[in-house]
Amino acid sequence: MKTTTAQLTIQDAEVLIAAAQHAADAAEVPVSVTVLDAGGNLLAFRRDDRAVLISGETSTRKAYTALQLDAPTADLVDLVKPDGPFHSLPTALERPLLFIAGGVPVHRDGRLIGAVGVGGGAPEQDHGFATAAAATL
Question: What is the pLDDT of residues 56-92, one digit of tens each?
């Protein structure tokens, strides 16, 4: 019998957005939150009215990077430093990756089903908000 892993749904995306926003609100940090499905397609996005405009772009690129490499962006920062093994990766692709903490892959039943990205706070804050969101699923 073949088993199928459920994909990331719009309802899941709304839960991720709400959880990340709740964590950021508790810390009084205005952020943008992006949720992508396993194909890199935008499922949900929300920017706090007070968040800096660039946070929308950074949250999306963080989610995309976490999705493409199936790893939290916080774990990848050292790999792209000038002496790191992937130092040219940030500019090697048509769609740029962003190696700043705040992107987290989302898994279900051991399979990658999407990613959440948060931008607007300090990198460690964004990572915490994204991690808290991913833990809700």
Answer: 999 999 999 999 999 999 999 988 888 888 877 767 7
Question: Collapsing DSSP states into helix, strand and coil, what is residue 107?
Answer: strand
Query: What 3-state DSSP class applies to 78?
Result: helix
Q: Exposure pattern of 65-102 as b/e (b: 16+ CB <10 Å)?
A: bbbbbebbbbebeeebeeeeeeeebeeeeeeebbbbbb
Cβ atoms of 23 and 133 closer than 8 Å: yes
**Residue in 34, 45, 95 with CA at minimum distance from that of residue 69:** 95
Residue whose C-alpha is closest to residue 130's, from 79, 38, 54, 65? 65
Contact residues for 22 (Cβ-Cβ < 8 A; gap 6+) = none
Indicate the residue type of 41: N
Task: Write the pLDDT tens digit of every residue in 93-135.
Answer: 777 889 999 999 999 999 999 999 999 999 999 999 999 999 9
Correct CATH for 10-120 of 3.40.50.1820, 3.30.450.150, 3.90.1600.10, 3.40.50.2300: 3.30.450.150
